[in-house]
Amino acid sequence: MDIKGKKVSVIGAGKSGLAAAELLVREGAKVFVSESGTIGEKGLLLLSEMQIPLEEEGHTDRVYDADFCVISPGIPPFAPVVELMQVRGIPLYSEIEIASLFCRARIVGITGTDGKTTTSTIVHRICEEDGRRKGYRSFSVGNIGVPFSSMVRQMSAGDVAVVELSSYQLERSPSLRPDVAVITNITPDHLGRYNGDLRQYAAAKFRIYANQRPEDTLVYNADDPLLHAHFTADNAQFPFRIYPFGMEPDVRGEIDCRLVLLDGDTVIVRTDNGVERVMATSEVLKKSFRGRHNISNVLAAVSVARALGIGNEPLLAALRSFQGVEHRQEFVKSIDGVDWVNDSKATNLNAMRQALESLPSTAVLIAGGRDKGNDYATIAELVREKISLLIAIGESQGKIVAAFDGIVPLKAAGSLEEALLVAREVAEPGQSVLFSPGCASFDMFDNFEERGRQFKECVHRLH
């Protein structure tokens, strides 16, 4: 796309919108920023320095005077400004799409309901290790918190951009073409945006491979029933290489390609020359990084490393030093024999389930927030088995109490700090206190990061 002289409206002045606006101006576009709320001081300063016109607290007709629009991922497709853009035939793109147009680096795109942040972080660390040996750089961008647009001008041919991708970002990225695409899993999440239809949500995720060519690679989780059915269907034909990975012993190479899998405690790779042992899972799992779901994330990362031609030495160095991701089953500290674990990134029930399955013993669970239509009955038996007390917080407090009444002892707390004080009183040595909300954060916090930080701050104040 030649954008020099093009008129571009950027809707939304969050991090990604501001990064896209700056990139577009530097590439010669005429940019206008429109924000339905207010723009923070840093954003106003950047827009002033770049001489980018703007409007706040609503969208005027000026926003429609554009050749195309860049839209923030959090703006739903049914927002009036979006619907009117479509009526007027103005193309809408994501910040990811814009950045990809100027990306000279190899792109590893990673999506999925759960595991994409952890997998993205591991892949980035592996590429950093390999890059130190071979002379290229790795950049971790996208949904992980760093806008792709803010870094893309620093990337050179031969570098690697590890791009975490949400379904929202993929919706409006029509030309995005990762050299390696990864789908970690697909389970119900964000269905309010997709009319309650899992198929629509999956279709948004599948956009990650829409433009891949024969020289590109798709990595997918063969243990995920939806993905396995999709990629092994009788009429399924794909022009790119496919690298499935899996932990289940019956996973086999239905597709003619290399396969990464778990054999007992060992990660192995099937190659044209037979089977190669990579490492034992005991070499990477630790207190701050545990659970079967994390073995799956490791298998995904090994698959990406193979697709990029990365050998075992940098791969093993990165995996052995990896300590997990902040807010994802993050060990905070031990107090009087009780481990406190921050899993604020568990914004859906599948992530909570993974945390519960990873517990080494029973725990006190703090859960709740803005409900996403959760069916708590699906984890009732797991909660009964693993949890000695469930402390409910947030908007979903009443629903959680009703769902688990008679299954597990329950308490309600009016704040996160109150929930921690209750947990401190009842948790016994050898147990954990697990903060795994299973819900969105927006009832009480700006995002899951703020929620996790507050949890950790409260833990460190405990005696």
Give a verbal description of the structure.
The protein has 463 residues and is of the alpha/beta class. It has a nine-stranded mixed β-sheet, with helices on one face. The chain is built from 16 helices and 20 strands. 34% of the residues lie in helices and 21% in strands. The chain folds into three domains: 87 residues, Rossmann fold; 225 residues, 3-Layer(aba) Sandwich (UDP-N-acetylmuramoyl-L-alanine:D-glutamate ligase), CATH 3.40.1190; 132 residues, Protein-Tyrosine Phosphatase, Chain A (Alpha-Beta Complex), CATH 3.90.190.20.
How far from one another are the termini?
59 Å
> Could you tell me the radius of gyration in angstroms?
23 Å
User: What would the principal axes of the Cα set say about the shape?
Assistant: globular
Mean pLDDT rating: 92
The figure for the number of domains is 3
Going by helix content, strand content and strand pairing, the class is alpha/beta
Level-2 CATH architecture of the largest domain: 3-Layer(aba) Sandwich
CATH class of the largest domain: Alpha Beta
Number of DSSP-assigned strands: 20
CATH superfamily of the largest domain: Mur-like, catalytic domain
